[in-house]
Structure formats: C-alpha cells, structure tokens
Predict the 3D structure of the following.
Amino acid sequence: MARYDAPSRRSGGQKQNTFFGGAAILAVGILVVKVIGMFYKIPLVNIIGAQGNTDFTNAYNIYAVLLTISTAGFPVALSKLVSEANAQGRRNQARRTFQLAMIMLLILGVASFLVMYFRADALADLMHDTKSSAGIKALAPAVVCVGCLAAMRGYSQGHLNMAPTSVSQIIEAACKLAVGLPLAWWIINRMNLPPEAGAAGAITGVTVGTVVALAYMLVDFLMARAREPGRARDVPDEARSIVWSILRIAIPITLSSSMVGIVNVIDASLVQGQLQRVLLENPASWELYQSFVDFTPLQSAIAAWRDTLAEDAPATMAALSAQIDKELAAKTVQSAAQTLRTTLEAISRTLYGNYGGALNIYNLPVSLMTAITASVIPTVSGALARRDRRGATRVASSAMRITALLACPMGVGLLVMGQPIMQLLYPTLERDLAGPLLSALGLATVFVCMMLVCNSILQAYAFVNVPILVMVTGGALKIFANYHMVAMPKIGIYGAPVGSILCFGLCLGLDLLIISRAIPRRPRYDDVFVKPLLASVIMGGAAWAVYGLGSTLMMKLGLLCVRDQATQQVLGLSRAGNGLMTLGAIGVAMVIYLVLIVVLGGISRDDLALMPKGDRIARLLRI
C-alpha cells in the first residue's frame, strides 16, 4: 500500500503544478485574444459606421447563442473525462470519449449551420434588422468549424496540454483582424457598398479565423497521436454510458453559459423593436434624437403609408407588420409599408449602433476578468479538497479584492469620462449620444465584474446551479426594464444601459447574500469594497477635474472642433485636443489611484501572491 500511495502523491503534485501552469497559459492566451479583439472592434466601427455596427452585432449575437449551445459545455466535459481516463491508464477510453464527443459536436454544429444559413432572413427579422441577414449567413460555416475546434481543445486540455488551445484562439483572433478588417475597409471605401455589406465582410474574417485555427488544431492533434505509445489494451465503456457522462457534465455548463447570450439576443431584439415602434407611434419621441437623426425621410414615409390605410385603421407597428406580411406573401415589391419599415430600421440601426460602440468599450473590463475567474475555481476547489477552509476563504477574499481593485476604477473612469473616451475611440459615432450611454454602462461594469468572480466562488463551493438561477432572475429584470424604459419618449435608447445596471446589480446582490449565508468564513465585504470604492471616487473626481480644466485651457488656445464655419459654432475640443486631454486625465487618475490604494492599504501581500511576479511587486511597494 505504501508503495502505491507515494507515487500517487507525487503524481498528484506534478499534475497540480501542470494544471496551474496550464491555467496561466490559458489566461495569457485570453488576454492576447482580448487585446487583438480591441484592435479589431474599435477600428471596425469607424469603418462600417453605426448602422453597420448594428448589423454586425445582431449577426454575432445570433452566432454567439448557437455557438454556446453547441459547444460551451462539451470541451469541459471532454477534458474532464479524458483526464480521468488517462489517470487510470485507459487510453482507449479517452479516444472513444473524444470520438463520441466529436460526433455529437458535429451534429450540433451542422444543425446550427442549417438554421443560420437557411433561416438567416427569419433570424434577421427576429432582431428587427433585415440588413443583418448577410452577416448571419457569412457566420454560419464558423459554427461547424468551432464545434470541431471545441472537441480538439477539450481533448488537448484533458491531456493537461493547454498551449494548443491558447495558440488556436490567438490564431483565430489574428485572422479575424488580418482578414475581416481589411475586407470591411475595401468593401466600404473601394467598392462603395452599404454598411451591411461591410459588416458581412468583417464577419467573414471570423469564419476564416475558425478555419485556420481548426487546421492548426488538426495538425497538432495528429502529431500528438503519432507521439502516443502503442496500442492500449483497455476496453472502453459502452457508447451510451460515455454519451450520458458527457451530457451530465455538459448540459449544466451549457445552460449557465448560454444564459448571458440568450438574454443579450432577447434584449437587442427588444430594444430595437421598441425603438421602431415608438418612432412610428409617438412622434414626440423624435425630439430626443433631433441632434443625431434627420427625421424628414421618416415623416415622408409615414405620410405615404398612412395614405394606403383605411380611414379608421390604426397606424401602429402591429398594423405595419401585418401589412408587410401580406405583401411578402403576395410578392409585392417596394410598397409604402416596406419603405417605412426600411426607414424605421435605418434610424434604429443608427441609434443602436452608437449603443453598440459603447458596449464594445464596456466589454473590455469584463473580458479582463476572465483570467481571474478561470483561476478561482481550481484554486478554491483544491483548497476545499484538502479540507483547507481557511485557505479557500483566503483565496476567495483575495480574488474578490483584486476584482474590486480593478473593476471599481474602470467603472468610475467610464462613468466620468464616457464622452471623451467615445470621441477619442469612435470619431464616426455621435459623441453626445454614445458618451452618456457609456457613462451609464460604467456603473454596470463594477456590478458585472464582481458578479463573475462571485459566480466562480459559488461554483468552486459546489453551488453549480445557483449562478444559473441568479442570471435568469437578473435577465428577466433586464428585459422587463428595457421593454418599458426604451418605450418612454423622454428616455428611449438611454434606458438600455439602465436594464444592465439593474440586472447585474441584482445578480451581484443575490450572489453576495448567498455567499454570506451558505459559505463558511465568508470574505469580509468591507475589506473588499470600501477602500477600492473610496480610492475610485477620488480618482474619478481628479480625472473629471483634469479633463475639465485642460479642456477649458485648450479651448482658450483655439483648439476647437468647429463644424459650422459661417457661425463659428464651438462644439468642443478637436479630436487631437480631446485625445491629449483624455489620455492626460486617465494617466493622472491612474497615478492617484495607485498611490491611494497603497496608502489606504487596499491590497495585501496575499492578494499580490495570486498575480504574476506578485512577490516582486510586493517588495517594490513595500507591502
């Protein structure tokens, strides 16, 4: 017995080290992918404009839901089952598990492809954006490729080899940038095609990236198989048993992962549908957007459509949709009703495209939390497996503090610098429209980042289904709030981020309540939130003051953005002046925040120990 136990402990320690090294590789890969994505999305919006951005977002939201449903839980299930089979020396079992998972993913991928390609028009109509149909079709082949990628990544991770997954993700993102962005630019600037064509071109880069990444993973998979020892003698389990094992693990993870995507699709469809309905039924709502939208075409289109109605017929969105359905069934071409719908779509695409630009910036801080959440589950779970509850609490507390230290300043920064940031990054969008939307989303940033780490803590403590129920509750509140607020003429599109604030605020509140009641030795919330919030508020005030004073000075020096040369109307700083002051304000704010965190003792040596080079940073800061 002793001869068996000792190697087992050594093997376990080696496996643990390999796992945490692999987690670091995945975290670095995720960070690189997010940086590449930033260089892809920000220029893309400036190329295809607000309307093209809406078409891109709607197509990608559909793709994301089908992709999550078909692939989210399978790589995790496959990696777990393959890892267990390898630990038992059952190489035939590992191979059979991979084969069955690949078949299942291919079936789901092909089914998703058929839905996206042959029902693209219906899906676009569901999003209240018929122009997104081409983008949905362009993305359809990617679902099949990503299904195969998911199987190979899961198999590789099951062998504790995380590098192929990270490399393939980077290849995928790099191809998207190298192919999609130039293609969108060529379509818009050289071929002079409409924004929806540019969006479809940009999306083509996503499909190309999945194909190239799949080719890389296939080569790596074949090379790994060639290095494996000779034929194994173990007998794999029955196919039915393996399939059930895969589904038992994959289904809860898929439900949890797909919830966010489903809520996003419903929300995007609802917001755009409500915008169009209110613009048609309540012309008082036009006043909110007079500075951004020319309503002359809409006024003419509504008048022309009203002339086709019976005298007592209601001029509502329901009546317009019913008339268009009849005309499409009769194959009527370019009627007054269809012209009106196209005009309404154009306005809602412009408005939602500005919101989509703000969402791109809002998603960056959220993306950076992935590395922290990916590390929480294995670290806390490992401590609990060793019955080290104090260690688990210490890790959970540090993870929450680090998240708060990052999320609070980013959220407050977006809140106070929303307009300058949008003007700097998206000069083609409407600063006075997108800026307030980004500022409101700044509050949601803090909530969603903290919610993600809380979800990971709950999952690490085996409360796997709790985050699903919490997200369903928050998503329902978001949908309810957006449905009613966007329909208010004096709120309109500005109500969309309010739904996110309410949703993730509720989710965070419920998570914190559950953690305080269900987890022993819970983290102390005052240690987590008070110091980062205090430092962030002071930092935000400093950023606002630096930008305001600098802007006033630069305006006096004549660095103005003048659109109307006849009247010399001053609209604000030029882009160069705004960029200089925005970067200056952010730089000053970062220095002030770092000093305050060190002075207030907002970070400890234990917190830094979870970070790369944490010990060196601690010595540098004398913590």
Remarks:
- The longest strand covers residues 570-573.
